[in-house]
Amino acid sequence: MRTALITGATRGLGLETARRLAGAGHTVYLGARDARRGEEAARRIGARPLELDVTSEHSVRTAAKLVREEAGRLDVLVNNAGISGPAASAAEATADDLLTVYDTNVFGAVRVTHAFLPLLEAGEAPVVVNVSSGLGSLTVAADPPAHASSVPVWLPALSYGSSKAALNMVTVQYAHALPHFRINAVDPGLTATDFNGHAGDRTVAEGAEIIVRMATAGPGGPTGGYFSAAGPLPW
Ligand SMILES: NC(=O)c1ccc[n+]([C@@H]2O[C@H](COP(=O)([O-])OP(=O)(O)OC[C@H]3O[C@@H](n4cnc5c(N)ncnc54)[C@H](OP(=O)(O)O)[C@@H]3O)[C@@H](O)[C@H]2O)c1
Questions:
Q1: What is the DSSP string of 45-91?
Q2: Which end of the chain is less enclosed by CB atoms within 10 A, N or C?
Q3: How many domains does the chain have?
Q4: Known catalytic residue: 174?
Q5: What is the pLDDT of residues 30-63, one digit of tens each?
Q6: Atom 8 in ligand 1: which residue has the minimum CA distance?
Q7: Is the distance from the beta carbon of residue 78 to the nearest atom of ligand 1 less than 6 Å?
Q8: Distance from residue 11's CA to the centre of ligand 1 (Å)
Q9: Phi first, then psi: what are they for 172, rounded to 5°?
């Protein structure tokens, strides 16, 4: 039985991914920065709650210690926790706005990956899925209409888009450094969650599809890639 951790799994795509992986027989640690909501969500889907705020080094280290003591290893890590940040135009966005968004979307993923690396090394055919966004593609951002078939909805978002572009580079760097892992970035597509006031045209089941596919890909699966449900995305 494989052991998986999904960060930011109290709701939205993280919760759906946790539900699907638990249903597929994984032992699932449901990461939640709010312990009570984590317990409620975990109880509903048959997962184990794990208090984990990706912006806190102490919280991440404590969570890794608990998983080491309980499970001794981790096979699948899904870095899902993410925030959009303030809706500021590029002209209005400040360095502090970017710091806040990067602390969750970029440094959070690195903090968690780094802390859980020894457990992933102890796991079987380790897999890391970084939940990125089509808004993180430099190629798409350079000419959105030309890539509308890959990323149908493109919006200017300095903090968020650049954080996901950074997460994409983090993904590639880890994939080079850890060739025995499978580490990929994925774009769920515009999905109806609290994240966008449920304005997305995809259901959480549809959005989570590519996350689950990469989390459960066999040892021959890809690494160092960037995928939506429809296939590879341009970086
Ligand atoms: N929805 C979309 O259209 C879409 C499209 C592309 C990519 N994505 C990406 O998909 C991921 C999930 O998005 P979603 O739509 O499911 O968003 P959501 O419904 O807003 O859920 C976000 C989750 O992240 C958690 N979170 C936020 N900050 C955290 C922190 N510091 N530590 C731990 N958990 C934290 C939230 O926890 P709380 O419940 O405690 O707030 C919540 O569980 C994000 O990375 C997002 O960028 C979403």
A1: HT-EEEE--TT-HHHHHHHHHHHHHHTS--SEEEE----------TT
A2: N
A3: 1
A4: no
A5: 999 999 999 999 999 999 999 999 999 999 999 9
A6: 133
A7: no
A8: 8
A9: -65, -40
13 Cβ below 6 A of ligand 1: yes
**Which of 40, 51, 195, when mutated, tests ligand 1's pocket best, judged by the most ligand atoms within 8 Å of its CB?**
195
Single pTM value for the model: 0.98
For residues 148-164, average pLDDT: 95
Whether the predicted pLDDT of 28 surpasses 90: yes
Cα angle: 146, vertex 207, 220; to 5 degrees = 85
What CATH number is attached to the domain comprising 226? 3.40.50.720
Separation CA 136–CA 77 (nearest Å): 20
Answer yes or no: is pLDDT of 206 > 90.
yes
What is the residue range of 160's domain?
3-232
Q: Determine whether 65 is an active site residue.
A: no
- Helix residue ranges per DSSP H, the chain: 12-23, 35-45, 57-70, 95-105, 107-121, 138-142, 158-177, 204-215
User: Which residue CA neighbors atom 19 of ligand 1 most closely?
Assistant: 12
Burial of 37 (0-12, 13-18, 19+ CB in 10 A): middle
Q: Which residues contact 184 (CB under 8 A, 6 or more apart)?
A: 128, 129, 130, 171, 175, 214, 222, 223, 224, 225, 226, 227
Which ligand 1 atom lies nearest to the CA of residue 190?
Answer: 3
